[in-house]
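Students often ask why we bother encoding 3D structure as a string. The short answer is that it lets us treat folding as translation between two languages. Here is a chain of 319 residues written in the first language.
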Amino acid sequence: MKKRIIDLRDARPILDIVSYGRGGKSFTPAQKDLITRTVRRVPEVMVKVSGGARTVAGVEQHMNYIGREGKLGLEADTGEHLDGKGFQHRLSDDWNLDLEAHERQTERSIRGHKPPKLVHNIIFSMPPGTRSDKVLEAVRKLALNEWQLKHRYAMVLHTDDDHPHVHVVVKAVSEQGQRLNIKKATLRAWRQQFASNLRELGVAANATERAVRGETKIHRSDGTYRAAQRADSTYYKNREQRILREWSAGSPELEEGQMKLMKTRQDIVDGWRGVAARLKADGDQGLSERVDSFLAQMPPAKTEQRSLIERLRTPTRTR
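And here it is in the second language, the structure alphabet:
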């Protein structure tokens, strides 16, 4: 059995359930807390990089959009709240983005490459029902810990949909000239810190990998998600037809993806069973039974394509 059931590149998973399930020492209190939160399905935090602009105009356009054209404005890293008409220009001037863009553009044009991002756009979100002020406070604390006196940043809380979320714009190059490269390990660390901050504020929050929870849903880009919500979406209809054609032709890629997912699921199930056995051996019968119940309720492992094929093949009267 492989120790890594998720591609982690340069870091361990938040909950390495395969290693947890192997024999060895008893679980630490922190490990038990994480297992308990996971099997109880405590709300999971979401941290997502939604993009980033390469031009000053692009940065200002995004700031103006998330600041609702000045009605909401943005909270700067200095504690100042900028709003009203033209607030985004004042913020980009304070960050010296025009100078940054000029230097990067000149450097890249010599090499024939497109300029790098001036900022990273990041979203911190929680499920419906979470107090929005707690979400904002948790993000503030994370920003102070991660970027204060290094990378300039600004944020705004949005409560216009069910999921309270905070948009953060982070300047890609720090005041010391270091570029912020966001990797999988970076997002993993931010999720952990965001969840920990929320728990300190009395909000139930967890941060684990989707596969460990038995979830196979893939996060789509904003554009793809919006297209899927529109019944008349040409993009989504064409995508459905393409997947059905590939399935009818016996596409090996579709089967390969399903087999890989099944292998990952088996590793996860074996790991959880090992966890339950270790808990039982340690005398924690209650938590061991919770793990067993969690496993029993785990949904079937299906790729997005397989789920779509099954849905489209189901007669209308039985949907």
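Translate back mentally: The first helix runs from residue 17 to 20. Keep this in mind for the problem set.
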